[in-house]
Amino acid sequence: MLSNSDVKRQDFKHNFLKTIIVRADFQGVFEPEMEKVVPEVKVWAKEHGYEYAEKPANHVNIVLNNGLFKSEQNVQKIYSFSNITNGFTLDVTKEFVCLKIQTNCYIPFEDYSEIVPEITKLFESNVTYFSVIRFGLRKINKCCVADKDDINKLFNNLYVSYYNELEDLTNISSGHTNVFEYSKYKFNYITNIVKTQKDNKDVYDVVIDIDAYARDNETIEELMKNEQKQSEVNDLVFKIYKSSLSEEFINMLTSDDGISEERVSGVSTNE
After folding, report:
1. What is the arithmetic mean of pLDDT over 177-196?
2. According to DSSP H, which parts of 17-165 are helical?
């Protein structure tokens, strides 16, 4: 049996990772500069098997007006590129570059880690005073537990748990949020449990959402130019993910045996 501290990424035979997001935010780029960048992004996308679709997106900005808050709606172009084969979607705007991966199987970090840095290089070569102000990696894991009592058996209840100090209470949902800094990085670590229905029975969706990022210029530059530094952040995200699981669940996920759908659904076998 493997303990939390012993288990390595390659030991996992199963996972419930659903979404990977790599995103770089930068100071707003002027439209004439975007007109230089977008054609180069299109060339890159075509060479890498992406299809192009421009789409508008509505963003609501909250601004202070005479001491009162009001909302202002701003419509901004999103240049979206999708690779249907691997489930990658790349969105490019004058404020950010975002790679979103919807996955049901394990994807090696090196398969996607350099995509956003490559696109930001196209901005750097075409935009005067270009500056990335945030760069981050986010991973969202989700599974469904059939029996509420199993939640404490499968997860570390320091971070994933229902309040249970009162007798006969009915749990609807529970959320835990930890915001912290470690080394040169910042983390938003959020877990949620929501009671829902499946086949007319109560079941429990469990989400483990880990967002790791940097905001200072020196660390961002390191991450953008050094894949080893990005891998360091990815390893920290993995460590936090492991800390969310019980040893029982770790042993299930590292076993060659299948995971019982009647007990936990939404878990995929790594290929």
Report:
1. 96
2. 31-47, 115-124, 149-154
- Distance, in Å, from the CA atom of 154 to the CA atom of 244, rounded to the nearest integer, reads 9
3-state SS, residue 126: coil
Give the up-direction half-sphere exposure of residue 101: CA atoms within 13 A in the CB hemisphere: 24
Q: What is the DSSP letter of 245?
A: B
Beta carbons within 10 angstroms of residue 218's beta carbon:
9
Cβ neighbors of 69 (< 8 A, separation 6 or more) are: 62, 63
Reading phi first (left if > 0) and then psi (alpha if -120 to 50, else beta), residue 213 is in beta
The pair of structure tokens assigned to 205 is 């969706």
pTM of model > 0.85: yes
pLDDT at 59: 54
For residue range 49-84, what is the model confidence (pLDDT) as tens digits?
999 976 665 554 555 555 555 555 656 789 999 998
Burial of 80 (0-12, 13-18, 19+ CB in 10 A): buried
Dihedral of the CA atoms 239, 208, 176, 206 (nearest 10)?
-140
- Enter the tokens of residue 67: 């001491």
Is the torsion defined by CA of 115, 118, 120, 126 positive or negative?
Answer: negative
pLDDT of 2: 46
Single-letter amino acid code for the residue at 216:
D
